[in-house]
Specification:
The protein contains 13 helices and 18 strands. By secondary structure, it is an alpha+beta fold. The strands form five sheets. The chain has a six-stranded mixed sheet, with helices on both faces. A four-stranded antiparallel sheet has the order 11-13-9-14. Strand 1 and strand 2 form a beta hairpin.
Amino acid sequence: MVRKFVQRERARLLGELRDFLAIPSVSALPAHAADCRRAADWLAAELRRLGCPTVQLVEGRGHPVVWAESPPRSGCPTVLLYGHYDVQPPDPLDEWISPPFDPTVRDGRIYARGAADDKGQVFCLLKAYEAVRGAGAATDGGAPLNVRFIVEGEEESGGHMISDLLHAEPWRTEADAVVVADMSYFAPGIPAVYTALRGMCYAEIAVRTLRRDLHSGSYGGVAPNAIETLVRILAGLKSAEGEIQVPKLYAAVEPPTAGELKAWKRLPFDKKRFLEQEVTGKALTGLKQHSIFERVWALPTLEIHGIRGGFTGDGAKTVIPAQATAKVSLRLVPGQRFEQVAQQLTRAVAALAPRWADVEVRILHGGDPVQVDTASPAYAVLDEAFEQVTGKPAVRVRAGGSIPIVPELGLAGAPVILTGIGLPDDGLHSPNEKLDLEQLWSGIEVFSRFFELFGKKGGAR
């Protein structure tokens, strides 16, 4: 029934997805606040159309959280579905083949900012609910379960609004399972569930060495350069071999278990393809005494995302910059805590700062790493759904990325399932982000089947 729904409605579904992706809901940029509101309104209207009697836009100190509940079914299990409607900034724009907010289909893939992270996956959950609701035998349609939706608009910029909401109203996390569809398959044809996510500490390091920019001919050789000073500080935070030189940073790291390491070695992995098609570079770097999986899943990282200062326009301007700022982040692994790492980073930068510079570390946002127990019966139900639709159960892996709100989604004790329909080469946060449409159509079937099976099996936990 669901497969027929997808085949019959494919053109309509694609048009709706395009409408959703066309909204430039960039949460980090104040200029797009109205667009974030438009995306929330689009979701609210869609959920009402799907028959949800309760639909709310929960307001607060950020972009609204969309909350909805399906028609209540007494005595039936409840699943809470999480996603986010905000997206990363699309820069650099000149590297996009088609405009980031003009969704374009090429070679069976839809290209747009948010296609895979996370609007396309939120859309997949909505359409899975629509499909199973229309296929149900009950008077109001659907599988015998209760479905709740919580979709935030700040996952890409700190998640303050949803965190405030769930701490103030933890009843919203009361469910028999929480599904977070913001992840990818391990590889094409190999679905995955994730046992851990890295946490995040995002910061700016600001340096001032002068009251104003100076002429490099008149003062070069004696005046301290803010960009040079900043670059030396940054170089002091990580060795050429990839070791983070923040004192005590590694002390809290909990290494992967022997069982995890053994399972990772059995995963199909093509290093050459990984380098050429995903990393798209000439070599892999980092702590080479550790495997690639350890480096991207089980060890902390420190990355420099951008440096601002001096003159960066066309042509030439010979100035010694008075100030410079770098945006950096650390990904955290089990055992580490965001607040402790923020303090460690601040102390490390202070120790590297020269006496002639005023240096400040501004912590912008962060969150703790996450580990989940996959022994819950809900995971077995999802495995069965994947196997029935794709022919394979999900492999257990970790993820290098972060979803800050995951700990709060489990406040009421429900198992949190981290999964998704993306592929590793979707280009998250990069130009030409895409979602393979076959992944979308298959995903609608998978999650519809999960709803049906979860309703029948009771979702015991």
